[in-house]
Structure formats: structure tokens, C-alpha cells
User: Fold these one by one.
Assistant:
Number 1:
Amino acid sequence: MSKLADKTEYRALSIIARMVKDFERLHFLNMTKNDDTDSCKARNLLEGIIQSNGYKVNYNGNNKKPLLKNQ
């Protein structure tokens, strides 16, 4: 799956950020309550990985960078 390291590299965090942004598209689709709960948990876990590494997801469509450094 992945190579274990002391620090998660930026490229891995960028991929995770794109996955988090894809979860936004689920808001317009019909899902069961259980599936919605599970997808929210998954999104929150992925966003937690990003935040624990000092970044946040960039939702600005005008900017190509998927991540912003926390201040």
C-alpha cells in the first residue's frame, strides 16, 4: 500500500486532498443513512491526516494548489 516513513510527503497529502474534495460531490446524490454516515467518517479521517501534517484543503477553484499551509 505505502512505504512507512517518519513524515508523510506532500505529494501523498495532495492526493488525499483531491479525494476529500471529491466527497463534496456526494452531497447532491441520494444515499442511505448508513452510507452517508460512513462516507462522512471517511472524509473526516482523510481531512484529519491533512490537518495533522499542518495543512488544510484548498477549496478555492482558482488556485491549482490542493493544500494550504496552516498559519
Note: The chain has one domain: 10-69.
Number 2:
Amino acid sequence: MGFTMGLNLVLLMAMVATNILSLYHLSKNVQSPRAPTPQPVPDHLLNQLRTIRSTINHLTRLQPPSPPSSASAAANPAPTIPSDLLLHSQLSPIASACHGYPDLLHRFMNYTPFSLCPHDPDLAEALILRGCHPLPRRRCFSRTPPKTTSASLPHNPFPPALPDSNVIWAKYSCKSFSCLNHYNPNLGFDTSHEYSKFTTYRSELDLPVSQLLQIAKSAGSVLRLGIDIGGGTGSFAATMKMQNVTVVTTTMNLGAPYNEAAALRGLVPLHVPLQQRLPVFDGVVDLVRCGHAVNRWIPETVLEFMLFDIDRVLRGGGYLWLDHFFGKGVSMEKVYKPLIGKLGYKKVKWATANKTDSSGLKNGEVYLTALLQKPVTK
């Protein structure tokens, strides 16, 4: 009863807020007699209205439905909302995007409490990639590999091989790291192949870690904490660990156990998508690297929000490293260069070169490697 009354009160406040915003916009139009035609609704008001409507829709979905008539119930049976989804919604917030995918959300929350969780990593990532993140918590026990080992876990972030027994392989076509390496050694699971990735100089697009550290030292800047966005199995974090620099890696398990591989190397994987706000406080990290996952496939507006979120977490004097960012040549000059320039960062390194693989040649793509330093004060 108390939950229903509280829910009704929230709905009433949301509708009152909608009306106030509408009256505010109407009053602005009335006070502007010179305008011959109605002015468009400002974007910030539209965004507020969309947020309120989304909240109303979300809360309405969670409100216990009134008992339907027998005839309508037979014709349109209402889906059963999992009890733990209703319970969680009373205890903790749910991402607003979740309400747009009720079938996926209901499947994720349709489990037996206090028992083993379903093995549904694909379902979880389907929700995450659609903006339903963080996911609702569940009251079930996570599954573990049947023959997991702990005593033999490597301390070296570049071990000769990663132990297969610490991964649940049921959802993957490959059932071992050697299988993944056989099909594509560039995926990051071949640690011997990855060892030289950030320590050698092959072209102007490369920035070896030794050179990065020297640049920071020459500028009187210290590198201690970093974030690697879209870092796969964590090879950059592994290389920085060898230099006593702590780097966490954002990564997703898209077709392979990237998170597990990073953890087996003694690194911290953050299971978050590219579009999510970085889960760290403002101005606390010294370095943010954007790996190969950050490229022209990201919509321009999403990329702009990402860059300014990176600016949020970087301290003054910190570095942003765009490592082999690629896009079409014409877009690099007309779109991406001005977009990056909005940050107002100092250009420490800026190198471009043609992308010579089949996709690059077909689409006229170029690579950009840029090291940019955030101003100490703004």
C-alpha cells in the first residue's frame, strides 16, 4: 500500500513538472510579441521533458497492474514481472534505458533466488550495450569454472600461457586460449606476441612506454594512475604495471573472454561499454589511453561526450593518448581534428598515416596517434 501511494506521488510530481516546463515555454513565447513565428522548443527543455516522460513510463511499468477483466485477460495476457525485479526497483535505481527492453530485462531477472545464477553473459552484455547499465543486482550465486586454480595463477602480467581452467568456455566457439591464438594472434590472448606491443617503435604512429614516461618526466609530470578505454585483454595495463603504474582496463566480452584474460594477468578489468560515464571521480587520473576500439564507428556526438568525460577524470597536466584512432581521411580534417581541438589540450605528439589494410584502402581511412596534455588550469 505504502509503495503504491509513494509511486502515485512521484507520478503526480513528474506530471506537475511537465506542466510547469510547458507553461514556462508558453510564457516565453507570449512575452516575445516581435517573433512572427513560434520559436522552437529549446533543446534543454526537450531533454528535460524526455527525461520526465521516460521516468513516468518506467515507473508505470513497475506499478502493480490493476486486475483486468476476464475477457481482456484472456485476449491480452499481461507479462509476469519477476518478483526480484520489482523488489530491486524499490531498493535501488534502474538505468532508464532498461525500460525500453522489458523482454531482455525480464529474462535477466527471471531466476531462482539463492541458487546458482543462470550462465547468461550474452544476455547481460546485450542489456549493457543497450544502455541498461549498471545492471540490476541479483540474489544468486555466480558460477565458477569446474576446475579453477588459484595457487598457479601467474604474477607476471606476461605469462607464457594463460590457464584455460579459470574460464567458463560454454558460450564461446573456442574452448581454450590456444584456440583463440590460432585463429587470430592479434586478439591479445597471445601474451608473448603482446609483450613487444608497447615497447617497440615501428612507425611514427607508435609511442613506446619508455618514450611516454620520458615525456612525462621532462614535463615534470608523474604517471601513477591510468585508464585504458577499450583495452581488450589489458596489454597496455600489463606493460605499465611493469613500470609500477596502475592502469585499469575497460573491456567487454564480445566473442571471447577478455575480462577473464585481463584478470588472469593480475589486472583490473572494468566491464563497462564505451558509451558509459567512466566510473571514477573527477580529476584523479594521470593518463587515459583510447585503444583501437575508439574509432570512426563511434557516432560523433557520442565521441564528443566521451572526450569531455575523459577531461572530467584527468587531473590538470594529465595526458590523453589516442592510439591508432582511425577514420576517413576527409573526416579526420573536417570532423575529428576540430572535435579533439575543442578540449584545448597541448599537442605533445600528432602523427597520421594511411591505414593500409583492406578496409582502410577501401574506405580511404587514415590512422591518428595523438598525445595531448590537459592544461593545469582553465
Note: Residues 33 and 360 are 55 Å apart (CA to CA).
Number 3:
Amino acid sequence: MSFLKRLFGPKPVIAKSRYITIEDVKSAPFTKKTVGSGYSMRPDVYYIVASVELGNTTTKCILTATNLNTSRSYLLDKTVKMTRDIREPKKDEKVFGSTVWGVELTKESVSEMVKNTILESVKKAKIDIDKDLDFVVRSTGVTAGFASPEEVGQLIISLANGCLEAGIPPRKMAPALSIDNLPERLQEFSLLEKVVFDGAVVSVIPPTGKEVVANEMEGELVTAGIKLGAKWTNIDFRNPCISLDFGTTLAGRIVNNQEPYARTIGNFCGLAGAVSDALIRGTEKVDQRGGAALDLYRKDILKNADWKKAQLNAQRVHELIDIGKVPENRSRFGTVPVDPEAAYEAGTTLIGCDVGENGDKLDELTILGHEIFEEDGMNTLFATLDHVSALIVKRLIDEAFDEGVVEDGSILGVTGRAGITGRKPQLIMEHTNGRLKDCIFVSDALAMGAAIMARCMNSIGTPHIPIGGRQGGPCILGPRRKIQKKKDDKWID
């Protein structure tokens, strides 16, 4: 390590989203190679996917275009709405659940919000749903606040209805049955005739048996998305790896080094951005029900902050935060429904972040946030948030090491508004430096995960630029074909 790195610490590697226009997608016929090697004579083909996300704080439609020659994914548009702005239920509508912050949801109100968000996004991106859009992936973190599978089912139906009302045909929300069902321009990239989608996403299979945490899909998507986002960097974020998504709720995975399919040996759950939001409400400058740190964040918010005081403040905040292995007798941790017994039977360790028990001390965080704001001001309060998030990462990683679920050579990937903004990446690096092989920060990993999930479901791969498999290793297409052939032969026998 160089003298400067020893003195100042390593510089965070941040994979920021890059934009492209639909005109560029349609007009650039060839991929430029590295300097001096000329041009590829294989025409560029882009796979356009809509990630429709309903979260506790934000609702998004993010349109991505992935170059299938390079496996690099670009943003066509990112439309973000505040979930608290979902209209109130009408008299004849049935409330089936609410967000972590108590915003009531009906099938009709959710569908309307989703439809409007999609239509605004495709209009800004100037894309045609029928001609340009290839696939749609729906996801939600709101299930963390739900009480029953029935409520979750109603939410999933509402998301689907919103997509249909926006004009998205059902065939663009389900995997193709054969290569002939794909658009002609994609068929040469699809490996459907060689391998089928068997549930593994970028060579990782989910925990076996029952679902162990309500937002399992979020963890799956962000892990895949960080792998795809890493293609913009020199970090090989493949197995073994650790992913952390700092949305309102916490999601993420710990993945081992097995081939061809790695196992999910750890899952993260609980509260993340909700911690920062609760503190910010103490300023009384945001909505007391759905207000978020996002409402007040700006690029110069950390100017003139007292970082030493912020560090002390963060230690006070962490006195209210419980981080550890989820006990077997808990059905929720950090408000998120969990099944520790099923997890531990499947060999998956659940590690959670809570404020009190199931968020019952979030109000105390708001009071503490008020004290910090009154004594130190807004700039230092935001610096406090950076230290708070960095300490959450430190404690989660410490717990994972204590539980023995971090394999040698593991790389950490962080995404989400409460994990990559401000000085959080630098502070997180200070806490994890030397413990892990590397660390990467990726914006919009959930949307990138949707892009790669859509490809996996349709077996659209790039064997020459593998996203799955081990760090430094080749594509796992061959071993996958062998596994699936054995299963087919067994079924025939």
C-alpha cells in the first residue's frame, strides 16, 4: 500500500449510474473497444428493462438499457415519487396494509401511483412501451410492515395492476417459454436452448425451504445489481461477497464461494434509512409521518459540520440501536417479518438491525435528533447521520465475522440512500479496511438488479464477460448445463 493510502486510507470505489438516451441506443451500431484495438464488428444490442419499485419512502420507475456486448448497464430515466404522496383511501376502498411509517394502502391507490410513475418515466425517456421496452421487474420493501401473507398478496396484485394499467402487456412481466418468444434482435444472446432459468440469479441460489425474511427479493436484486454495477469499475464483485442495501429497511446477503451455484449463508434485515429519517424528524422541518432525510439533503449539507461532535453524537444514537443475530423466538426484527427457525435449519444466519424492539424506540431517536439539531445545527446533524450509518455497517460486519459466515476474500458492496451519500463511503472504508478484500459502493443497485434478473429469467447471458461465478473465474455456463442435464436424465429415468 502506498504512503498516501496509509496516511489517508483507501479511496472508495463508487460506481455511479451513467445515462444514455433512447436515440443513442438506436443510433450507435457498434461498441468501441479499448484504445488502439479498433471497433467490434458485432452490432450493439440493448436490453431495456423497467424496474418498478414501491418502497416505504420512495416509489420509483427506473429504466435501464444494458449493452449485451459489454454487460454495462445505463439509465434511460429515473422517476422518483414519495410514497407518502399515495392518495388517501376512498370510502369504498379496502385498506390492506400500510408502510413502516403508517401510510395506508389500498389496491386502487397503489395501482394508481404505480401507473402514473411508469407513464411519467416512459414519457421522459421517450420510449415506446410496445416497441422499445423488453421486460418489467416489480419489487417492494413495503412488506416489512405487513402482518400476513394475504396483505403481501394484495400488494403484489396492486403492483401488477399498476403495470397493466400503464399499458405493459403481461408477456413483458413473465419469462419467455422458448427462444422464439423473444424479439428477434435478442435471440442470438439468449441461451434458452442450452440452459433454463432454475431460480439462480448471477450464480446465487436463495435460502432453501421457506422464505426466511420478508424482503428476500430485495436482497437478491441488490446483490445482483452490485455485481452488474461493478462492471463500471476494476473490482470483480463476484462470489464470495457481502451486499448491504440501506433503504428505509435493511436488506442484503452474505454469499459463499461454492460453484457453480453459491449459497446464501447470511441475510440482513431490519431498519436502515429509517434510523436517519427518525433523527431528521427531530428538526421539525419535515413531515412527522413520512418525512425523510432525503427531503433536506443537499450537496453542501456537510459544509462546516463538526465531525468530532458528530462522532460523539453517533455513539449516543447507537445506544438505542440493537444489532445482532436474530433470536429464534422472534417473528419480527426491526419491524421486518422473519422466520429464524427456518433460516437456521437451512443454514442461513439472520443478522438484524433494530431500534429498541421492532422500532419501539424510534420516537426516542426523534427526540435525540431534536437535541442534536438545537445544539449543533443541521450540518452537524447530517454529519451525525453519516457516522451512524458507518457504525451500523461496522457492527453488522463485526457480527457476521463473529458468527463465522464471512469467507476469505469476501468483498463488501453497499447501496441505498442511507449508505452511499455524503461521507458515508469514506467512513465505512475506515471501519472495514483490512477486514475484507475490497469494498464498492453502487448507486441504483436495485434497478441494476432488476436488469440482470430480467436477463437471468430469459437466459440472456454474456459468457465472455461473466457476472456470475467466482472472482477471477470463468463463466459457469458449462457446469450449469451439466447440472441441468443430470436433472433431466433423472426425470426421464
Note: The CA atoms of residues 119 and 364 lie 40 Å apart.
